[in-house]
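Worked example 2:
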Amino acid sequence: MTIPELNLLTRSAISDTEWSDSRWHMRNRITSATKLRRWVRVTPEEEAAIIESTVKYRWSVTPYYASLMDPDDPSCPIRQQAIPASSEMGEYPGAEVDPVGDTIYRKTNRIVHKYPDRVIMLITEACPVYCRHCTRKFHTTNREGSYFRDGEGESFADDMRYIAEHPEIRDVLLTGGDPLSYRDDKLEGIISQLRAIPSVEIIRIGSRFPVLLPQRVTDEFCEMLAKYHPVWLNTHFNHPKEITAEAAAAVDRLLRHGIPVGNQTVLLKGINDSVATMRRLMTELLRIRVRPYYIYHCDNVTGVSHFMTTVDKGLEIMDGLQGHITGFGVPQYVVTTTIGKIPLVRPYHRLTREGMQLRNFRGEELLLSGPAYPTADPRPAE
């Protein structure tokens, strides 16, 4: 049973000037059940979860993202991603605040150096919407937690020095939190320092603003990034409902300024854990010229575990993508661990005495004989 709500807001109730201004959305973020009732019919269960979980976890929703919610359906994939749930307070086997090992590989206040030639730089804790499934929920959302040893506002000098002193680092990913939470000039100050380091070849930005508040991706922002090429942006669409005209326009602005856009989807129970939903998501991403990059198996993060599916479900979805959509629309399915991202792949071949036994997306099999397609170098060792 829902509590009756009156005079729900819609996009049409907001002036075009305000709606197109990302600062208006940030000033008017939804941070209470009272504010949320202006957009959706809040259920008693949602209201209880908001009260229970916000003692521990931050939450906020931009008006733009709230406008995508089904006002009458609490199982709406947008609502589930943004509105606190009582499940966040549950205890689950093996759940950890940092199952991916960020804190193990931290070298400075912001630098995480897990792979030989690249690092991530955690430049902020802030996000426009605190996604309930965040891998870094302790860092971004927990009211008492942070990966920062020092405050977010501390100097970046040690971080830049570390990168400059390790010339093997050729690729830097700015993440957080969401880097676009900073003003353009603040973000440019960080990017310009990175571009001044000769060994840094690629600068990447991980941001969900194209999904949660695409109005933030302005021409001025894109022009700033274009001064520091090569710059890449990876975003995070999880459901076809998130691919709107505004999101497509934000992606188009990035692409027109030479900034490639990739997408990292998280496999989430009850949100996108079906072949039909994931296939539609990938084809819609291709339509707006976003390259599917990863499907992440949901990490067993404290406060997030209720979103986890089985690995078999993920492999079933990958089988439903492979061969059914164009090859470059099929992302890599991975689980992130303390030893890195590990691809989860169902084999499409097996080696036999006769050669390679192959299987296609329909389950049809074909044997490629050993002499025609050798599996080892037939030449004798010299």
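The chain has a mean pLDDT of 94. The chain has three domains: 11-84, 111-343, 348-382.
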